[in-house]
Amino acid sequence: MVQLELPMHIFKNSWYENSISVERGPLIYALKIGEEWKKVKNEKDPIEYGDSYYEVYPTTPWNYGLINVADDKMEKAFTIVKNSAVTNFPWNPDGAPIQLKTKAKQIPSWKLYNDMAGPIPYSITYQLTTLKESEEIILIPYGCTNLRIAEFPVLAK
After folding, report:
1. Residues 61, 138, 33, CA angle at the centre, nearest 5°?
2. Residue 73: CB partners within 8 Å, gap ≥ 6?
3. Which of 34, 36, 111, 141 is deepest in the core (most CB within 10 A)?
């Protein structure tokens, strides 16, 4: 067996409202969010679309901002954790083959709106009110998520 490992650096890209995404090599990372799946009876068009469907709701906080880190300090701000056992189906939150851990702060004013993440707060320019203490969050490959926050507001400190 031949195993090839290519260098994959952690970097960020800027997006809407001056938010950032976190990337490593070819992968974009998203917040690992706890999920609750609810089965809903389809009363509108059960013949064409089936008699039921599932809705997914967050069970853990999702409204985090990432602390601003200089481009040349990204590797130090994130810890890479590789899952030693890759499952037969790694494309789900529990089977993610790799994780990035970093510090973030929750933004209480960023709430659900119409059962979706509300508009993303504009980064840095406005002093966003956050919880005082930062906490460690886990990012997993975007393709392993069902609920996704992959663009994060940037916090000054």
Report:
1. 40
2. none
3. 141
